[in-house]
Amino acid sequence: MNALPDRRLNAYRPDLAEATLEGAVTAERYVTGTPARVAAPVAALRPRPDEAAGIDTQVLFGERVRVLDRADGWAWVKSDFDSYVGYLPGTALDMAVTPATHVVAVPRTFAYCGADLRTPAAFALSIGSRLTVVGESETRGTRYFTLEGGQSVVAGHCLPAGETAGDDYVAIAGRFLETPYLWGGRSGFGLDCSALVQLSMMMAGRSVPRDSDMQAAGLGTPIEHGALRRGDLVFWKGHVAIMEDEATIIHANGHTMSVAREPLAAAIERTGYLYQQPTGYRRPV
User: Fold this and answer.
1) Continuous segment of H or E residues that includes residue 170
2) Fewer CB within 10 Å, N side or C side of the chain?
3) Is the pLDDT of residue 22 over 60?
């Protein structure tokens, strides 16, 4: 019997499945989905429509999804960015999909009620949030972008859509140091180990899988421990870390409950009882 497709990346239930799975899974009907974008600063994707369900991952303000179903206040969606499937509150979506013009390029920033840092903050935004800018102004020497919703963001905290924050994703990862660890988190407010890799590489212009097992299975090429250098990845069962240099890693971890820096040898010794030895090493290329 053939294994069923990975439910994290393929949307199917007995009553409904995405159209691309017709012939691969059995469902009562198949749909292509309706385009939408995330209207909440950060929205959790859950494996079932239940606030008590654990978080699988998160989608960010302005990111696009396809809505496959709506029921009881929930939307079943698939991310256009990394194909992750899950449920989020329907109120977190905006069906008016306009092109993003800019992306937030700092770990965290605010959308203000007006083009002035002294005005109240309407909400906070994470790195990677997609923005549609409709105007620009300057107040006391600071440039602001006006969003289509009327809020303003500091222009210097944004990059034009399509531009990157540089090609050194390790340096980008270092900007998250001391960010809280959050299981399933994928934002500048809290993230897990594989999200640190994904977000950092995303801001460097690369699209990579969401979870550590997906990254370990096909991101880059395998290498030996003795060949490790800056930018390589170290995998344990259920964990991934980024090499900052030949001996030091940066990783979001449950030991410090934050993004932290530590010697690789110390991490291997410390985590041995829980994760055993590293399962592999890979070089993103």
Assistant:
1) helix 169-174
2) N
3) yes
